[in-house]
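Practice problem: 3-hydroxyacyl-CoA dehydrogenase
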Amino acid sequence: MKIEGHAAIVTGGGSGLGAATAKALAAAGAKVAVLELNAEAGAAIANEIGGFFASCDVADAQSAEKAVLESVEAIGLPRVLVNCAGIGGASRIVGRDGPMALDGFEKVVRVNLIGTFNMMRLVADVMSRAEPDEHGSRGVIVSTASVAAFEGQIGQAAYAASKGGIVSLTLPAAREFARFGIRVLTIAPGLFRTPLLEELPEEVRQGLAASIPSPSRLGEPAEFAELVLAMVANNYLNGEVVRLDGALRMQPK
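Answer key — structure tokens:
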């Protein structure tokens, strides 16, 4: 599907993978709505790319619905949704102080998995009203999982479960939305140079990079964005989860 001239929504677009994706979509000629809980960061990216900003808590039904409606009014019916909003968090299920707090598990799953589903259901609804292109396509939804969905490490139970849910959501959503001409895909990135990793000491980052077979470095957000553009462009790619990890396979810890 062609990107130029079409509207796109990117959640978590204020930093990291989301910001890189918003910039890449805008550079390809898309009208981009940056949805972000951090208003300052989201507005800054939107201003930089000449896009639209809407404050959004992806895990909140009313906040997300308001942001989607505002985006449609500002840039038109979206043809692309990229779900990048998410949080981390590490905690053992049973640690030195006893069992993991249930609300900690719930928060990660709510933001990462329920937030992804929330945006998917809302944007697919408005996307389905667009006129199909010459290929019968109305749009593409790309979500962000993680290699932790397949090789979750000790302490990653909540994060791995949330990302595993996104992986499992991909195919049934693709099958359901086929009648609308909407494709559904997921990227499972490995270790990327995001604000979270940038906070780590240099020697720790070097150690993480060395664990990646080839290339032995952290992934760049722009490389994630490149894959998003390729997924949107390839009309036959649907219902797939694509790892983007330099052949990394995570160890237990």
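Discussion: The beta strands are 7-11, 31-36, 52-55, 78-83, 94-95, 98-99, 139-144, 182-189, 241-244. Students who identified this feature from the tokens alone can consider the problem solved.
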